[in-house]
Amino acid sequence: NFIYIANYRTVKWDGELSAYTIDLSTGTISNTAVWKAATLLDAKIGSLGDSDTRTIYTSSTGASALKSLTWSNLTSAEQAYFDTTKLSQYADWNTTEKAAATGETLVNYLRGQFRYEDQDPLPISGFGTPARLYRDREKALGDIVHSQPVYVKAPFYSFTDSGYSAFKSAQASRTGTVYVAANDGLLHAFDANTGQERWAYLPAPIMKNLWQLADENYATNHKFFVDGPIAVSDVNIGGTWKTILVGGFGKGGRGYYALDITVPTAPVALWTFTADNNPNVGYSYGMPMITKLGDGTWVVLVTSGYNNIPEGSSYAAADGKGYLYVLNAATGAAIKTIGTDIGSVGSPSGLAHLNVKVADFETNNTALRAYGGDLDGNMWRFDLDAGTASKVVALSSNQPITAPPELGEIDGKTILFFGTGSYLGQTDLSNTQVQSLYGIRDDGTTTVSMAGLVQQTISGSATRTVTSNTVNWTTGYGWYANLVDGGERVNLPAQLYFGTVIFASTVPTATACQPGGYSWMYFLDFNT
After folding, report:
1. Could you report the per-residue pLDDT of 162-196, keeping only the tens digit for each?
2. pTM tops 0.85, yes or no
3. What is the rounded distance in angstroms from the CA atom of residue 93 to the CA atom of residue 510?
4. From CA 368, how far away is CA 383, in angstroms rounded?
5. I need a labelling partner for 94 at 20 to 30 A (CA). Which of 49, 133, 249, 328 fits?
6. CA nearest 80: which of 112, 106, 54, 115?
7. CA–CA separation, 343 vs 514, rounded Å?
8. Which band of pLDDT confidence, cut at 50, 70 and 90, is reported for residue 61?
9. Is residue 370 within 8 Å of residue 355, measured between CB atoms?
10. Which residues contact 128 (CB under 8 A, 6 or more apart)?
C-alpha cells in the first residue's frame, strides 16, 4: 500500500513523484521513499546524453493518432515550433554553436537528453567537447505544481449499465499506474509499484511553446504547460466500456485533453477541447466531471474557466461570460453549451469549478444537476437536460467563489457547502473584504436571499467556536457564518464526512515578498 506525493523546486523548476508505504491500520507513513520517479526517469537517459529509452507520445492538432515525439515524426509546421533563434542565448552563440542548435537537438533536449545542456563540457569519447546550448537541468522531470497524482488500477465502480460487470471482471488484474501532469509539457504515466515511467504524452496544443523550457532565463521566467487537474472514469463509448482520462492545462493553457487509458501500457488519444475550438474557453483550473446524461450519453462537463477573454490578436470573439460545456466523452464535441450571461471582457466571470449531483455515484453515474460558482459571487445550478442555468444564491463580487461546492443531503434535500474568497493573484493578497462559510439548501428553482439563511457566529482566538442556531431545513434555506480575521478567505473545497463539514481558510501575508500566513480548520455539524 503506497501513498504518492508530488513536489517541485523553484528556480531549478524540476519535480519529483515519490512513493511511500502506508500502514492502513495505523495510518503511519514511512519516512523513506520506496521509489522516486525522477531518479528512475534520469536512468532512462543514455550515459552520453544523446539518447534515451523513454516512450513519449504526441499527436498532431486535430488528429487522434498517437506518434512518438521525435524530430522525424513531426510535421513541417510542428518542426517550426522548435526554432532555436527565439532563445535568449542565441545572440551569444558563435557560428559553431548556432549550427549545433538545431530543432532536432532541441526536441531531444525536451525528451530529457542532456547532450547539449549548458553544463561543464567535459570531453565525451566519440563526441569531443559538447556545445553548451540549452538550460542546465538536474532532473528530466519537470515541476509538478497544480496537478495531483491519480492512481488507477482495476475498475471499482458498481455500475448497473449493460456490459459493465463483464468489463470490470476483464480488467480486474489491470496493473496500477500513477498519472501526473508536469510543466515539462507532459502527462506522465508511472508504474505504481516500481516508479518506472511507462510513457508520457505531450498534448498537441502545448507543443508550440515548449521551446521556452530551454531558455537560459527560465529560472526567473518560469512557464506553465500541463498544469491542471486529472479526472478518470469508466465510460461506455459506442457500446464498448473503456477507462478514460481527462486533464486540464490549468495555468498552462486554455483547454482540456482526453486519452483512453483502458490498457495502461497502450494509451489512445481521444480529443482536445481548447480555445481554438471555442474562444470562450479560458484557463482550465477546474476538475473535469465525467458523468452521464439522462439519455445514457457519457459526457465530460467543463467550464469556461478563468480569463476567457481575447489575448492579443487571439480569441477575439471571447466575451468573458461564464459557460458550462457538455462534451461528448468519446469525441470531445460540445453537445450543449450552457451560458450564465454573467461576465464581460473587462470583468470575466471566472466560472471555473464544478460539482455534479448524480443519482448514485457507485451504481448509476447519471447527472441530475451541476453546480458551480463564479468570481461575481453567484452559485449556479445547471439543468443538463434542459440546458439552462439559474442562481442558487447571488452574493456579490466582494465574495467570489473559487472552489467547487461540496454536496450533501439533509432529509432528502440537496445542500451546498462552500466558502468565499479568492487567492489567485497578487491583488488578492491585500483584500480584506469579509468572506463567509455557507450551507444552502437548493430546491431546484429558488434564488436564495440572505434573509432565508440563519447566521452563525464564529468567535475565539487560539481555538474557535461556532454557534449552532437552529436551522429549519424545510422552511428555511440554510446558514452562513462570517469569517473574522482580516483577509481570511476560503479558496479550497469543503469536505463532508459523516455529518461533519470541514472548511479550511487561509489568511495570507499582505505582500508576495513575505512568505507564510496562517490557516484555520473548521469542523462543523452540517445541520447548523
Report:
1. 999 999 999 999 999 999 999 999 999 999 999 99
2. yes
3. 43
4. 7
5. 49
6. 106
7. 33
8. confident
9. yes
10. none
Whole-angstrom distance, CA of residue 372 vs CA of residue 280 = 17
Residue 273 grid coordinates? 477541447
Q: What is the DSSP letter of 253?
A: -
Residue 117 is which amino acid?
A: E
At residue 233, what is the residue type? Answer: S
Q: Report which residue type is found at 2.
A: F
Name residue 57's amino acid.
Y
Q: What is the dihedral of CA 289, 291, 297, 303, to 10 degrees?
A: -20
Q: Which three cell numbers stand for residue 29?
A: 507513513
Say how far apart CA 404 and CA 421 lie, in whole Å: 12
Distance CA 198, CA 189 (A): 6
Overall residue count recorded for the chain in this entry: 528
Coil, strand or helix at 92: helix
3 state SS of 508? coil
Report how far residue 127's alpha carbon sits from residue 110's, in angstroms, rounded to the nearest whole number. 20
Describe the strand order of the beta sheet including 436-442 as a list of residue ranges: 406-410, 413-419, 436-442, 478-482, 454-456
DSSP string, 167-218: HHHHTTTPPPEEEEE-TTS-EEEEETTT--EEEEEE-GGGGGGGGGGG-TTG
Phi and psi angles of residue 415, each rounded to the nearest 5 degrees, phi first? -120, 135
Q: In which residue are the cell numbers 455515484 written? A: 361
Q: What are phi and psi of 65, to 5 degrees?
A: -70, 135
List Cα–Cα distances, 25 to 20, 252, 463, in angstroms: 15, 39, 30
pLDDT digits (tens, 9 = 90+) for 411-464: 999 999 999 999 998 889 989 999 999 999 999 999 999 999 999 999 998 899
Q: Grid coordinates representing 486?
A: 482580516
Contact by Cβ (8 Å): 194, 176: no
Helices (H) and strands (E) in the chain, counts: 6, 31
Q: For residue 97, what is its C-alpha cell?
A: 554553436
Q: What ranges in 63-102 are assigned the alpha helix state H?
A: 76-79, 95-100
Q: How far apart are CA 347 and CA 350, in angstroms?
A: 9
164 SS3 class: helix
Determine which helix (DSSP H) or strand (DSSP E) holds 524, and give its type and residue range. strand 518-525
Confirm if 375 and 385 have CB atoms less than 8 A apart: no
Beta-bridged to residue 328, according to DSSP, are 299
Domain ranges of the chain: 409-528
CB-CB contact of 79 with 71 (8 Å): yes
The count of other CB atoms within 10 Å of the CB of residue 449 is 10
Q: Which residues contact 207 (CB under 8 A, 6 or more apart)?
A: 58, 78, 81, 185
Strands (E), 387-433: 388-394, 406-410, 413-419
